[in-house]
Automatic annotation (TrEMBL):
Belongs to the small GTPase superfamily. Ras family. Its EC number is 3.6.5.2. The keyword Iron does not apply. The lineage of its organism: Eukaryota, Metazoa, Ecdysozoa, Arthropoda, Crustacea. It catalyses: GTP + H2O = GDP + phosphate + H(+). Keywords: Hydrolase. This is small monomeric GTPase. NCBIfam families: small_GTP (TIGR00231). The keyword Lipid biosynthesis does not apply. GO terms for molecular function: G protein activity; GTP binding. Residues 204-214 have a biased composition (Basic residues). Residues 182-214 are annotated as: Disordered.
Amino acid sequence: MVLDTKFGMRSPDRDNQSGQARLTVIGSKAVGKTALTVRYLTKRFIGEYQSDTDMIYRATMPVDGSKIALEILDLSSNLDEVVVPRETVAWAEAWLVVYSITSWESFRVGVRAVEAVTAACGADQPNPPVLIMANKKDLEHIRQVNESIDGLLRQVSQLKGQTSPRLRKLSVSKMFNQLMNLSSGGGGHQDHRPVMPRVSLRDRTRKRGHIRQS
Ligand SMILES: Nc1nc2c(ncn2[C@@H]2O[C@H](COP(=O)(O)OP(=O)(O)OP(=O)(O)O)[C@@H](O)[C@H]2O)c(=O)[nH]1
């Protein structure tokens, strides 16, 4: 594995062959982008990293019986918001968006990052593969982001417990809105901003994004 502290950008066409891949890792500050990258490449968890520099990692990784020459750009983040540099959009062939299960805000930032990446790619370009990955799953006791179906059903039960008989006749869409507000604020904080990218159903089918827990 080679570590570059300099962010050496190359033209998008160079080395653009099968057997090679360029991946950019983004997410809000301290969600564990570097930890996750190093864990993937070395299968080891290292606690502390230099966090204030963009890094490129180079390694050959086995994928489906073939070897992929992989370059991973780990974009450091000084802000809670993710900035998607124009030159990175031209460079990256795939994106890994990381958030921490201990921070609802980092999940929001991740969702906005997916929107920013797809917007930056332009309407005339096919959307690159994007994977949203949850990190810090060992910190279950301070989890803020709960996306399991069980969690969703628990919220339905809570909601029904809170409602009067008259309110139980709410329409499905009102019920859904209430759920989204509940899940976005952990119950107390009300925030009416949407939590998922606003794309039409048709657009959704074209996107190749996945949500995965590490
Ligand atoms: N408990 C726990 N801590 C983690 C995990 N991943 C990373 N950390 C810790 O979270 C802190 C931030 O990790 P980094 O990998 O530096 O996070 P980053 O997103 O690269 O940070 P920036 O580049 O500064 O935005 C470090 O103290 C890590 O040890 C994890 O899965 N579990």
